[in-house]
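Long-time lurker, first post. I've been practising inverse folding by hand and with some scripts of my own, and I keep getting stuck on stretches where the structure tokens seem ambiguous. Below is the full token string for one chain I'm working on. Before anyone asks, I'm not after the true native sequence, just a reasonable design that respects the backbone. If someone could post their per-position residues I'd love to compare against what I wrote down in my notebook.
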């Protein structure tokens, strides 16, 4: 009884001393205890991989999945470390008697270690006074040790075995909470270091051997049972690479990249080391490409390096890790195999060095930054990739230049698209290839991107979307060594025509066009700008007679109010709208349109938009079959009210007798006159902006060599009148500008 009390007291003191910085191991044990609380006091729930002996205190994730490394795990209830069962009582009410380290080895069933301690004359030492930490290999660990090594130890118990056991010991007491991640503790064999890792999932390792039963306190120290026999470590990662015949390619590459030395310096690395064979499977061309570009080589190698030590025993399920290249890999496990990005590729795991751990893999991990543009395209955009090759576009791209691909998903290439004449399709796809490498973060609203087809694409940035012309980007952008890749859901159709030309050539917008003409708003359709137009087709006016149309045209203010409600001052693409939400878009008339994206179709003021996103050089047009009307504007005459009852059936318009439409100043209209005059050698660019009240003059003057072009731009806005005169005289193709 007295002994029991002492032990309980010792445990109490040791475990409560610094509760404040409770370690991951302690947390996971206490979770296990909570999970097993129905089984009685001091019982811990433990997961055991089915068909194997491995047991773990589980993380929340493993517990809920019911698996360890993807394999089904059964739950066992065992006494928590330090406790014992008592005959006829629930749970584990007894605290194990506290004894010296030698006897404690027996208590935790590390009987092989106990036996070896005896034969090697270590017994006396660990029975006597002192304070030791013994990382004691379990009986299975000794069985798993290769025979040659074991025989060597057992045949020379006084030196080899004695030294080996001393390497498992520290002459100081370290509980798991004292074993901090990344620390090196000094063993009792030649002061050689032991590499400690304490992971957030509660796993604690010593030279990558896992503590499977921790904190068994002894009168003269503590015993932690570990799952393998560890051997001394004197080499760095660099040393291992230099002597391993399977890693000569890696060695040469690391040397060329200037990384080899770094791997010889102190640190905490994990290296996934591809074998020579793994590099060979890439082919000579690829190898040559990597070797010839130092930046790419560096990225490739750093993609195999982590700035932390990941021992295989610490991996209980897949987790994402940032590589030193910057992008992530997933390290996981499948049964007993370690996996990278879900693939079993590890031939040999846990080669422990003084500055980290090496896992040898049978394939090369390729980061996007080491891939060429065409190699970035995988499954979801494989059709685009094929088309680019087949139509000769990939060979047209210069090897020393950079590009950006706007790759539509495979679903875009319907039979309809695939049956387009090859030459036309080629032209379409040329406009999916942008000169220069432009990453997602480099795109900005109003940017213009030149394609190899010679077209300029406009960039639109919305709150939740980035669109290039009618194509909005979806997740999955990548950057390769010679370019960037962005994915889209639609075929990109760059603007060819003005809003006016689109409506005119379609032929079913005659009435709308005649109304716009009557309202004097043609310049909105024909001039420069970035407008969105919801254009009502002739169908919208089917219920109106010629007299009705004339009535609409008779009041200019009324007509402008109605028509300008169909125009907005910036470009809104269907895909740029926030799905589900109602997007309020202010019109030139002043009231908002309510635009919504539902079931992949656009709705404006609850009216369907059958065809959206027709790109124009001065905006975008969405076709509707209804006339739109601002709900906050009443109608003032009965005549017009009768007309509206037929024209606008989807809503009611308020009638306020005598209401008159107000005049809307057309300040947004730009009438542009461009005159080109040939002149003499001398480049002059003069910009003169004259505003009435207060007047402002801005003069830009650029003088350069070579002939010959004058461009006069005149912008006249209504009320107050602004006249802007731009005079450009420039030489050759270089348009320089200085302010
Ligand atoms: C013309 O517009 C109508 C909608 O009013 C649309 O259904 C039709 O497809 C368009 N025609 C062309 C050639 O774009
Ligand atoms: C989407 O379509 C389904 C069926 O076609 C319909 O039941 C649903 O109401 C639609 N959702 C919206 C937001 O219009």
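-- Answer (accepted) --
I ran through it position by position. Result:
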């Amino acid at each position: 009884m007295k002994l029991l009390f002492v032990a309980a007291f010792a445990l109490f003191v040791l475990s409560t001393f610094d509760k404040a910085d409770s370690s991951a191991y302690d947390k996971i044990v206490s979770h296990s205890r909570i999970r097993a609380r129905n089984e009685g006091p001091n019982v811990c729930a433990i997961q055991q991989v089915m068909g194997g002996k491995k047991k773990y205190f589980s993380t929340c994730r493993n517990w809920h999945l019911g698996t360890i490394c993807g394999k089904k795990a059964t739950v066992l209830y065992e006494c928590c470390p330090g406790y014992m069962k008592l005959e006829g009582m629930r749970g584990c009410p007894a605290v194990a008697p506290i004894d010296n380290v030698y006897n404690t080895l027996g208590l935790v069933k590390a009987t092989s270690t106990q036996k070896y301690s005896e034969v090697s004359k270590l017994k006396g030492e660990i029975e006597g006074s002192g304070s030791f930490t013994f990382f004691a290999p379990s009986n299975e660990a000794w069985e798993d040790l290769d025979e040659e090594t074991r025989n060597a130890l057992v045949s020379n118990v006084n030196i080899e075995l004695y030294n080996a056991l001393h390497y498992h010991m520290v002459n100081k007491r370290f509980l798991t909470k004292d074993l901090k991640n990344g620390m090196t503790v000094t063993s009792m064999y030649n002061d050689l270091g032991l590499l400690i890792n304490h992971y957030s999932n509660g796993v604690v390792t010593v030279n990558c051997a896992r503590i499977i039963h921790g904190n068994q306190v002894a009168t003269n120290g503590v015993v932690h049972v570990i799952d393998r026999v560890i051997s001394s470590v004197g080499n760095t990662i660099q040393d291992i690479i230099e002597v391993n015949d399977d890693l000569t390619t890696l060695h040469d590459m690391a040397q060329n990249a200037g990384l080899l030395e770094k791997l010889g310096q102190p640190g905490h690395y994990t290296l996934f080391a591809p074998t020579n064979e793994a590099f060979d499977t890439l082919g000579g061309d690829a190898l040559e490409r990597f070797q010839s570009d130092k930046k790419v080589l560096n990225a490739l190698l750093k993609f195999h390096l982590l700035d932390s030590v990941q021992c295989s025993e610490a991996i209980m399920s897949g987790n994402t890790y940032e590589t030193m290249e910057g992008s992530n890999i997933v390290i996981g496990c499948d049964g007993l195999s370690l996996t990278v990005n879900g693939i079993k590729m590890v031939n040999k795991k846990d080669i422990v060095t003084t500055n980290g751990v090496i896992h040898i893999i049978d394939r090369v991990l390729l980061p996007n930054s080491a891939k060429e543009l065409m190699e970035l395209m995988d499954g979801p955009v494989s059709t685009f990739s094929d088309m680019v090759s087949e139509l000769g576009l990939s060979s047209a791209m210069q090897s020393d230049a950079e590009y950006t691909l706007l790759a539509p998903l495979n679903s875009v290439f319907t039979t309809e698209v695939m049956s387009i004449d090859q030459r036309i399709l080629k032209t379409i796809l040329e406009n999916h290839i942008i000169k220069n490498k432009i990453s997602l973060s480099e795109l900005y609203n109003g940017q213009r991107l030149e394609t190899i087809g010679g077209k300029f694409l406009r960039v639109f940035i919305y709150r939740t979307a980035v669109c290039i012309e009618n194509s909005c980007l979806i997740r999955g952008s990548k950057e390769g060594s010679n370019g960037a890749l962005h994915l889209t859901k639609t075929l990109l159709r760059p603007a060819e025509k003005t809003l006016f030309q689109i409506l005119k050539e379609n032929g079913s917008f005659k009435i709308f066009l005649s109304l716009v003409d009557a309202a004097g708003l043609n310049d909105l359709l024909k001039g420069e700008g970035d407008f969105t137009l919801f254009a009502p087709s002739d169908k919208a006016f089917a219920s109106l007679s010629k007299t009705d149309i004339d009535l609409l045209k008779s009041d200019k203010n009324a007509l402008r109010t109605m028509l300008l409600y169909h125009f907005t001052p910036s470009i809104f693409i269907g895909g740029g709208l926030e799905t589900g939400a109602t997007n309020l878009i202010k019109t030139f008339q002043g009231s908002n349109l309510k635009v919504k994206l539902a079931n992949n179709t656009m709705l404006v003021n609850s009216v369907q938009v059958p065809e959206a996103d027709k790109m124009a050089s001065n905006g975008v047009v969405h076709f509707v079959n209804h006339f739109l009307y601002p709900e906050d504007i009443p109608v003032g005459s009965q005549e017009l009210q009768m007309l509206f009852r037929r024209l606008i059936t989807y809503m009611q318009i308020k009638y306020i007798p005598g209401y008159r439409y107000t005049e809307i100043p057309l300040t947004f209209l730009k009438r542009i006159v461009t005159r080109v005059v040939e002149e003499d050698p001398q480049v002059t660019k003069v910009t003169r902006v004259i505003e009435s009240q207060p007047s402002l003059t801005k003069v830009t003057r650029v003088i350069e060599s070579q002939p010959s072009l004058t461009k006069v731009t005149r912008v006249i806005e209504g009320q107050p009148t602004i006249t802007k005169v731009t005079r450009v005289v420039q030489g050759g193709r270089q348009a320089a500008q200085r302010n």
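A couple of notes from the structure itself: The chain has a mean pLDDT of 85. The chain has five domains: 19-94, 99-226, 238-367, 371-488, 499-668. Happy to go over any region you disagree with.
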